[in-house]
Write a structure and sequence with these properties.
Shape: elongated
Structural class: mainly alpha
Distance between the termini: 43 Å
Number of strands: 0
Helix content: 55-70%
Radius of gyration: 19 Å
Strand content: under 5%
Largest sheet: none
């Protein structure tokens, strides 16, 4: 091996212990998708309903997290 103390076996994957495979981008994406959609809708609804961008984004994030977690749990 080299002189670097961080050298390890070739092809070593740090995410091998992750059953969902989130380290290599193949894990559950429901929460991420829920947040993205919830925040986007929250911005629009916040300006239309509450006339406050931050309040709408907060509501959208809460709904997005709930929907994304429910989607992940259903799979």
């Amino acid at each position: 091996m080299g002189e670097n103390e961080n050298d390890g076996p070739v092809g070593e994957n740090k995410g091998d212990n992750d059953p969902a495979g989130a380290a290599n981008g193949t894990g559950n994406n429901g929460l991420t998708t829920g947040l993205a959609i919830g925040m986007s809708l929250g911005v629009v609804l916040g300006l239309l309903v509450f006339d406050n961008l931050a309040l709408g984004m907060g509501v959208g994030m809460c709904l997005g997290i709930a929907l994304g977690a429910a989607h992940d749990a259903a799979r």
